[in-house]
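Note to self: user wants both folds in one dump. Writing first protein now.
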Amino acid sequence: MVEAELEWLSKIGHLRFEPEAITSGGNWVTGPLKAAGTIWAWGQNNYGQLGDGTTMDRATPAQVPGLTNVASLAAGNEHSLTVKQDGSVWGWGFNGYGLIDDSNTDVFEPKQIAAPGAWSLTVH
């Protein structure tokens, strides 16, 4: 990536995989999935979209607690979904309109929303 792209991305936040390639990012949050199957996130956090149990914005990457063995990751505007290697689906962040579950209550930490199965994530 060129320096201008990295500067722009640092303003919107990041979800990254290792090596340093951005794999998923919404309007307000970004995060990487590292080789060890962990997710690191930073950016705006008003709906818990960083998954750290708070609503505090974060300028530097921090590991999303409680998630290991992650196989894939997708980020919406203010929420994220992931499929772990065992096939279970996890989500956190803005939950209006039932984006994560049917509670319509924002989810501040990763929450399992589907049992292991043959799930996959597609970003449109």
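First done. Writing the second protein, which came from a different request thread.
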Amino acid sequence: MRKLSQLHPSVAAFKSFVNRHPKLLEEIRKSGKGWQEFYEKWAILDEDDPFWNEYKTESTEADSESKNQDSKKSKKTDHSDLIRQIMDYTQNLDTEKVQGQIEQLSKAIGVVQEMIGDMKKPSANKTPRAPFSLRKD
């Protein structure tokens, strides 16, 4: 039998997921459904999907709730740090310089659009050429 370290990483992750959801193991044994079906659902839905809530035990649910609360706190902290960094950055900007750069970018985009428009228009001056030029000796 293969060890956990020899398994494919996704299979090892699914195995640890099943160990954290003992009711899933019971469901598979009772229903006779195959592992493949649940593995595919796990791969598609991810382990945080509400579908898996019925297979969790109470301690697993409490652990996940505390993890969710911790992640929400860290996300709030990350957002406030990001906003603070953006505010610091915008205070040091020279608005006239930024405006000039935006105008240059706008002109460059206009030139590119004009070139693309010229390429798309069929030219009346050009006559279609033969793909192969045949010359007589």
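Dump finished. Worth passing along: The helical segments are 9-20, 22-31, 35-45, 58-91, 95-120.
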